[in-house]
Amino acid sequence: MRHYYFNLRLVNLIVLLGLFLMNDSCRSGKKSQEGKEVGLEDFLTEEDIFDDIDKAKKIFYSLPSPLETAMLIKSAGASYNESVLNALSNVNNYSTNKSKAINLGIYTTDLSFACLFEQAQTSLKYMDVTRQLATEMGINDAIDEETMKRLEQNLNKRDVVMDIISETFLNTSAYLKENDQQEVAAIVLVGGWIEGLYIGTQMVGNNPVQGNNLVDRIAEQKLSFSIVERMLQDNKQNQLGEENRDIVELINELHALKLAFDKIEVQTSAVKVDESDSAKVTLLRSQTKVNVTPEAFLELQAAVKSLRNNFVQ
Amino acid sequence: MKKYLPYIVTLTVLVSFSISVNAQCKGFAKKLCKLELTGYIHDGNYHAAILTEGEEAELYKTFYSGQSYRLAVCGSEALPAIEYQVVDAYKNVLFDNKQHDMNGTWDFKLESSQQLKIVIKVPVSAQKTEFPNSGCVAIMFGFQDK
């Protein structure tokens, strides 16, 4: 009789485990609060979009990828400065899963940045360290010999190199998410995003804050920071309810950054859809108010520098 | 040990099935959905999951001013055409593919940076089946080189 119950419980356990495994990376939970009423004349802050989040559904959080981050920095007027990138020789310093994941993100942003500024040889070197870290993390097929060969053969074709970077990042993210390592995938993304902030804030240097496109672009990252927070909170526990120490540690490390972003105001108006473009590209008309004082920017710059330097040590 | 063998086999099959289904999803996103971004550079992010008829998903992302984006939402063959809406923080629907011939892609650019929500729904197929169909759904973003 005892065996029967034991076997029955074992079967239940297997079925439950099976259901867990068949489920995707996204988290489920209780339905949250009802959405609040807002007037069209209001400006909303970065948290308002999450008002009616329904966690009974699959939820995805999307951060700017390393490639998009590098593009955003470049299009805001940044110039190329190799000295701000994480040194290639640091790659052998990373021994923990968390430091490998963060620096995989950091090196991928550095690689994207070098590629966008057509630094062929630097791109090749950064692809190599990215590959080393990915391999150490068990992601062997993200960047294979074939990819390296294709990169070498097309080093001077920026569009091909961008495509290779995009594909290797997709391989990495897909591998991690499909092998129940969503938490690691989140850490890689955060690492890449922080590196973008670091490069951007370093490029501003001592230049005036007011009327500076790059500063505005960096301040607008407050919108993505709220997504970072949500994504990390959702990945704090694994599917078995166990706490992920790396994520908890990362949330704590981001606290100074949160305090710095709290001093920056970013408000967005409602969006008006304009479909008059003959090229069939819809224009979304809206206003975003960004208020960043020189003091608030200096605090953000210092917080980012301290955080990033701690990551790359 | 022998008596646990059936359970171990079942577990192995389930794990293999899960890995195989997920791997198909990666292949679907990479080989099929990414083609929808032709003319744009895929950002490299991977958002794909197995969804069942009637199931919904949401994606949150910040889009930046001055960038031209393409959104591609794709569902595998087993599923009916995927419905999706793009919504702003004020809950205004900016795009609904039901109003655009169930188009799987949408090209847009922004005057100023915005957080937007993409709401995905797998409709229930008109053809009655014993079990609801499940399949891969991928959401991909491309931007233009500047």
Structure description:
The complex is a heterodimer of chains A (313) and B (146). Chain A is mainly alpha-helical and 313 residues long. Chain A has one domain (59-263, 294-312). Chain A contains 12 helices and 5 strands. In chain A, helix 2 (66-75) crosses helix 3 and helix 11 runs antiparallel to helix 12 (294-312). The longest helix of chain A is centred in the middle third of the chain and has 23 residues, at 182-204. The N and C termini of chain A lie far apart (59 Å). In chain A, 44% of the residues are buried. The model of chain A is unreliable at 8-40 (pLDDT under 50). Chain B has 146 residues and is of the alpha+beta class. Chain B has a single domain, classed as Sandwich (Jelly Rolls), CATH 2.60.120.380. Helix content of chain B is 19%, strand content 38%. The radius of gyration of chain B is 18 Å and the shape is globular. Mean pLDDT of chain B is 88; it is low at 13-19. Classes of the chains: A mainly alpha (313), B alpha+beta (146). Strand 4 of chain A pairs parallel with strand 7 of chain B.
